[in-house]
Each structure stands twice: as C-alpha cells, then as structure tokens.
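Q: Hi! First time doing this. I have a protein sequence and I read that you can turn it into a structure. Is that right? Here it is:
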Amino acid sequence: MERENSNRSRRITLRLTEKEYAKIESQFKASTRRKLSDYIRKHLFSRPITSKYRNQSLDELMEETVVLSSELRSIGNNINQIARKVNTLKMIPDFKGHLYLFEVQRKKLFDKMEEVSSHTQKISERWLQ
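A: Yes, that's right. Below is the predicted 3D structure, encoded as structure tokens:
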C-alpha cells in the first residue's frame, strides 16, 4: 500500500457544503477504511460514471428557436399596441394607417410562426433518429 501511495502526486480540491461533508463523513466512519481519501477514492473509481454529450446541431437549432421566439414576442407586442391604438381612434385616416400596420405585423407573425414550426419539426426529426 505504501508503494501505491508514493505514485500519487496529483491533488484534487473539492468544496462541499456542511451537509454534504457530514454525509460523506458519516458514511466514512461506518466503513472499514482508515483514511477519508481512501474511502473517497474507492467510491470514485468503483462506480460507473454516466456521461452525456451535447449534439452541436441541436444546440444550433435551439439557439435559432430562441431567437425566433423572441421575434414572435416582439411582433405580438406590436400587434397588441396597434390593436390598443385602433380601439382609441376616432378619425378614419388614422384608422386606415393603423389597420395597414396591423396587417403588416400580422403577416410577419404568421411567417415567423411558420419558421418556428419548421424548426420544431427539424428538432423532432433529429431526436427521433
């Protein structure tokens, strides 16, 4: 055992909460190990570690979906502002101008909704592979 310890020259520092440390310490005291480092080392190397990787293409799709969602929110806000303004108008020329703006924003909204739908479809197809 002494020879094995002499090869250990690398150190790992780990911060724990009081609760986490108390749990490890109580489990260590119930074990047959003499040193806490031996106890931790035994558990560290004896348990399988599950690692996951991130799919870069899905990350890019998610980023684009977030941007599209933000654009949809701002278009929705514009439509709400136009609707409020139309409800308070009393003059026909102002009404026509705001109605035109409303139609432009409505078209943008439906175009963006189609983009979001398309991206959502792409994401679901990749997840189902």
